[in-house]
Amino acid sequence: MSGTPDRISLAARLRNNFLTGLIICAPVVITSWLIWTFIHWADSWVKPYIPLHYNPEEYFQFAIPGLGLLIAVVFITLIGLLGSNLFGQWVVTFTESILNRTPLVRPIYKGVKQIFETVLKENTQSFRTVGLIEFPGPGTYALVFISAEAKGELAVRFNELGQEMIAVFLPPTPVPTAGFLLFVPREKVIILDMSPEDAAKLLISGGLVNPEVKDRLIGAKDEKDAKP
User: Fold this and answer.
1) pLDDT tens readout for residues 84-137
2) Where do the TM regions start and end (predicted)?
3) Contacts for 7-12 with beta carbons within 8 Å, 24 or more apart?
4) Secondary structure, 3-state, 5-31
5) pLDDT tier at 1 (50, 70, 90 boundaries)?
6) Rounded to an integer, what distance in angstroms lies between the CA atom of residue 177 and that of residue 169?
7) What are phi and psi of 95, to 5 degrees?
């Protein structure tokens, strides 16, 4: 019986070492796999359109990972540079006029363009603020990303009801790539100090990875606890 504690202790140490190694290796492996997958995805889209006599792989006789991604980045940057001058703006305007007059294509193009302009606009606050709302019922809270104020017809309808509503995005756990678009009264949203990155970590981990508390919140809590 004297050897049992040693065996249990050895098993516990092996288990702890395995979990420690898993915590170290898993993020590195998953991150590397995601980056590698994205590079291959970009290469598979770009490389087929590179003429053979311009493709370095034809001369080196081996694949160059990331070549397609690099060419795509350079190409997009050049398009942006050309689009910023007078002739480029004329070409863009002319192309957009054709797309906007083409049935079926027009709504798709305008919708996609509006999404990219909203997301990439430097001064936009969309999805940069995190909050809490009561969902799916009173007393239960869900993490959301603040999208924007209600606009257009929705704003008119909500004003008729006497409510100031904001749009929030409610992502699922553990893969927050899809979710629900909800319109919630502004006073019902609890704004949080955590960054969108910390909120994403919290969602992906299923609540296991919690962001650190901001200093001002710690001070406010200490003042509240100090009150008689």
Assistant:
1) 777 778 888 888 888 888 888 888 888 887 777 766 665 556 678 899 998 888
2) 18-39, 59-82
3) none
4) HHHHHHHHHHHHHHHHHHHHHHHHHHH
5) very low
6) 11
7) -65, -45
Locate tokens 């993490």: which residue? 143
Give residue-wise pLDDT tens across range 212-226.
Answer: 776 555 555 555 555
- What are the beta bridge partners of residue 126? none
Q: Output the pLDDT for position 190.
A: 92
Q: What is the helix (H) or strand (E) element at residue 183, kind and residue range? A: strand 180-185
Q: Which of 179, 107, 90 is nearest to 143 (CA)?
A: 179
Distance CA 165, CA 149 (A): 7
| Torsion angles phi and psi, residue 21, rounded to 5 | -65, -35
Judge whether 130 and 145 are in contact, CB under 8 Å: yes
In terms of DSSP bridges, do strands 141-149 and 129-134 run parallel, antiparallel, or are they unpaired?
A: antiparallel
Across the range 15-20, mean pLDDT stands at 83
Nearest to 128 by CA among 191, 50, 54, 42: 191
**Better-predicted residue by pLDDT, 167 or 110:** 167
Q: What amino acid occupies position 36?
A: W
- Sheet of strand 141-149, all strands in order from the earlier edge strand to the far edge: 180-185, 165-170, 141-149, 129-134, 190-191
Taking Cα atoms as reference points, which of 223, 129, 224 lies closest to residue 168? 129
CA pair distance 106, 114, nearest whole angstrom:
12
Nearest Cα residue to 196 out of 218, 180, 183, 211: 211
